[in-house]
Amino acid sequence: MKLHIEEEIRRIKENLLMMASLTDRNLAQAIRALTERDDQLAAAVEAEDTQLDSLQVTIDEDVVMFIAKQRPVATDLRLMIVASKIAGDLERIGDQAVSIARAAIQLNREPPLEMPVDIDRLASISVEMVREAIACFVDGAPERVPALVQRDKLVDAINRQLFGELVDRMEAEPSIIRRAVHLLLVVRRLERAADHAKNIAEEVYYLGKAVDIRHSNPRPADQGKN
Amino acid sequence: MVSGGVGEMEAKETGLSRDAADDGVGEARADTIISVRGLDFFYGPIQALFDVSLDIPRNLVTAFIGPSGCGKTTLLRCFNRMNDLNEEARLVRGTIMIGGVDIHDAAVDPIELRKRVGMVFQRSNPFPKSIYENVAYGLRVGGLRDKGALDEVVERSLRNAALWDEVRDRLGDSAMALSGGQQQRLCIARAIAVEPDIILMDEPCSGLDPIATMKVEELIHDLKRRYTIVIVTHNMQQASRCSDRTAFFYLGRLVELGETMRVFTNPAHKQTEDYITGRFG
Question: What is the ipTM metric for this complex?
């Protein structure tokens, strides 16, 4: 017998995967718009962001309906909580992509500025983290989460390094300040995207293990209750 | 006869060997009031319970859940030997200790046991008497004749059953005229009038509307301060709302027993998860 409850869960998961796919594409396109100085790609990122917004609303509506109708417990309950949070994180990654795309459009109006090598590295790691977080969700693989969470520390380190490097360059060459500030914002957006990937990974861990590992404070789902 | 009543018995170390509970597994708890070990129970040739072992702590609400025929009501009825009234019923192996006393010991009087272990049934079953007489019945049977003392216990029991304010002006009216929810609370008042230690509830809200159900659930919450409650329910929300601990039974076996919050957020067994999420049963 095919249970109606399974059908509702399947639809929520499918919409999450669609969001993940769009987010991944938008983030990668925003980075390409920046590195290839492509205004059209940047404009496409902004245009597609409305789809992400719409999918997030749909997922949240479906989650509310599921909770109201099914009164979920155990894995179903955790999935509903996590689905809404992951949708929120994906939507925010989409917003970071839009901000990067807008920065790209601004920078494309200016003479090219030699970009620090580590911006490419930061972008690659951030995109990989988003992909791996989603892969953990799809594969139901919370055991891969700790490694991903650790990578966020590398992102933070690169972020700090790039900040210092760009500030040094601005001090040495004030004429680049306007462009360098845009680049600093891009760096910040990439770092935030990695943060959201980390959040998604932590949510996947909670889904699979019923343990909350946010804030470096592992805590079983039922701890402190009852 | 249960010497001195269960309430006066000393809980003693039970030397637990095995328990399906996954928290506090196999360790005797100081606050245990009911202790079941290795219980095999039959109706004629049909085995209804298989090697059930569990501990029920004092002054908490323990919910028994599981699909129909899983043995939860059978086990509940074992606790006050209600199954003795069924000629087919046979306890083949195992022990049930209440307050440290084996309830199948030859010295235990089942009638006295049932005073200490009260029961509220699925369908409210008031006697065809007045509201007052329903509550006073057990006391009269126990030999209490003093009108003042009876009045006091009836009022206290009805207050504790959250029914006093609704019936105080019509205590002489027939109990049969009460609503279903009121009748069920009257049955609870009747059960607590004789000051039991344990109240067994077999799907006490199955025939009640949501408002009456809420009142009974609130009552359960209040009563656990004074009594140990074991409730059988098919309503998962009720089990999660009302109980401190939940035991899941399947095909006559105890699958899982633990803190209710854990069982309903992170069950240890797939069978439990499938049942509470509505995948089977």
Answer: 0.74
